[in-house]
Amino acid sequence: TARKHSFVFFTETTFVFIFAILPLIFLAVAEEIAISGFLTGVSVVPLLWHLYVLWIIILWLVFAYIWTDYYLDIWVVTNTHMIDIDQHGLFNRKISTSRPNLIQDITIEVPGILATFIDYGNIHMQTAGQNREFVLKNVAKPYKLKEIIVNEQSAMTEKPASP
Question: In the chain, which residues have pLDDT < 70?
Fold first, then answer.
């Protein structure tokens, strides 16, 4: 089994944490203004805290959506099939399968220096089936996964035909 690299998940969720922390700065400034007496008789800070809690709930839902997409995108390589389960949103899933002996070409794309250092990339597989190309995006250890696929492909083609 293979998944997207955890760095990809980290980069997709970083903005959620930034958007959770930035309003705290605004709330600290609002409390300081309220304490200094600039807004006498007006209690805006409790309302702002309630809005912040609502904002955190929305960000939590966004984080759950990103995590679900990350966790349910999976590629399975067995000795008889390759299965690509691609989650699109919460209730939309695309599952593609291919046999290793139908693979005609495997290309690995490592998009940049950071991807080279932390070892992730895209694998493009051309097949002879109806789905002409399988693309495994941002997969961890693409060279190792390619080696596994090629080994399964050669093991399947070297197998003697059963009568």
Answer: 33-44, 129-131, 157, 159-163
